Amino acid sequence: MASRTPLQGAASPRACTIDTKGPGEATGAPVAGVKCVLEALNVPDEIRSRMKLGTASEQNSASWEGRDLSWSYNPETWFHLAITDS
After folding, report:
1. Residue 79 pLDDT > 60, yes or no?
2. What distance lies between CA 63 and its chain's CA centroid?
3. Which residues contact 33 (CB under 8 A, 6 or more apart)?
4. Number of alpha helices (DSSP H) and beta strands (DSSP E) in the chain
5. Each residue of 12-28: pLDDT tens digit?
6. pLDDT value at position 10?
7. Across 20-66, where does the E strand assignment appear?
8. What share of the chain is helix, strand, coil (3-state, %, to 5)?
């Protein structure tokens, strides 16, 4: 089993939140940044696929290897992802 990459976020070393830049927003992470984080944390392909299938304003979640993910998509604000260690 591969070792887990530690989470490092602004609020806590056990949490990370990423908001992508939607149309009309001045700030936000690029989608490529989200992909990079998911790859670095070895998020399973099954969960990544579920992220791509979400619909507007639908809240989704998944867990793996002691981590919890929640994400949503909105046409105005685009993608929001939260990752926490359980």
Report:
1. yes
2. 12
3. 18, 20
4. 2, 4
5. 558 889 998 888 888 88
6. 44
7. 60-64
8. 20, 35, 45
CA separation for the pair 73, 19 (Å, rounded):
10
With CA atoms as reference, report the closest residue to 37 among 71, 77, 60, 73: 71
Residues recorded for the chain: 86
Question: 21 — phi, psi (to 5°)?
Answer: -80, 115
Give, in order, the Cα–Cα distances in Å from 56 to each of 39, 41, 78: 24, 25, 9
pLDDT for residue 69:
94
C-beta atoms surrounding 73 within 10 Å: 21
Going by the DSSP 8-state scheme, the letter that residue 20 receives in this structure is B
The pTM is what?
Answer: 0.75
Token pair 């992508």: residue = 20
C-beta of residue 7 within 8 angstroms of C-beta of residue 15 = yes
The answer to whether the CB of 57 falls within 8 A of the CB of 39 is: no
